[in-house]
């Protein structure tokens, strides 16, 4: 059952004259074709196209709210699908009888920390999600096994213009008795090959803050796929005057052709504007200071350019190799080391070959990227304190 309610929100990013609209920050120096309307391809959960003022807010059994505003320096909020916990889909996952990954029930996790991850699941569409075993590899079972190790995962490259692939993934994870859910963006992109972003999380460990999910509006088309944003809070019992850790995540996937030195407008140098403006917006709106930008940026740490020039902002994993072939660094988790003191200093990748016992060819059937993760305190840290130790990569998840 879908429960709806209307909500309006007026928000301003920056109070000083000349700050301008976020869309002005995303203004391109060259003309490009306009992005496809989000109404061109509709989700099975019937998302509503981008709206200016009001969008429906629904339970996790249906659509997530979309909020829009038109004031100086605003960010427009777009409608996002929310996937039901155990919701039925119109397609049935084809189960293959051989070499399936066994999903064991989740073990105990520390109540002191949460683990956040980013994962580009290559071409994660209907074909990939509807066929359990491919060439002897349980692709969907492997994806479910990986995602279920984390409390919250930002996913890129969801194909097909709807949320069905993510629904199937969540349903498979929940066969173990887990309680995962997700929110999925409308399809984004300039061409017919659009993609969706998704956040998938364990409802017993993390909750999404109501009406917090949106897609950054890019009217002047400076990015091929404008980022998706959502805010979350760890589920933890307050103690010693410490509140559960709350934070905003910016899920990004750059166009590899638009982050090169030859690109007319480098998308990395747009993301720094996005980071600063989203953080200011969330602070003005909710008092939120912790902003985490993560995703497939298609560059290594040496080429983060203006994004790395934001004071105190750094890539947690640096130049850790993140592609399945172990040759490139594409994926990052970036935080402000002064603001986000909840970072514990632990991060790593899930090596699809070493950790899961796959050959390179088998691992590439799962994805051409490895998941990158980082650990954070489940509690807000007082200013001036930090739980971070020397940042040393941890490959396996313990």
UniProtKB/TrEMBL annotation:
For biological process, the GO terms are:
DNA catabolic process
Q: Does the keyword Nuclease apply?
A: yes
Pfam families found in the cross-reference section = Exo_endo_phos (PF03372)
| Keywords assigned | Hydrolase, Nuclease
* Entry keyword annotation includes Nuclease: yes
The domain of life for this entry's organism is Bacteria
A GO MF annotation of the entry reads:
DNA nuclease activity
Q: Where's the Endonuclease/exonuclease/phosphatase domain?
A: 117-369
Q: Check the record and name the InterPro entries matching this protein.
A: DNase_I (IPR016202), Endo/exonu/phosph_ase_sf (IPR036691), Endo/exonuclease/phosphatase (IPR005135)
What family does this chain come from, according to its entry?
Belongs to the DNase I family.
Tell me which PANTHER family the record gives.
DEOXYRIBONUCLEASE (PTHR11371), EXTRACELLULAR NUCLEASE (PTHR11371:SF31)
- What is the protein's given name? Deoxyribonuclease gamma
Q: What is the organism of origin for this protein?
A: Rhodopirellula maiorica SM1
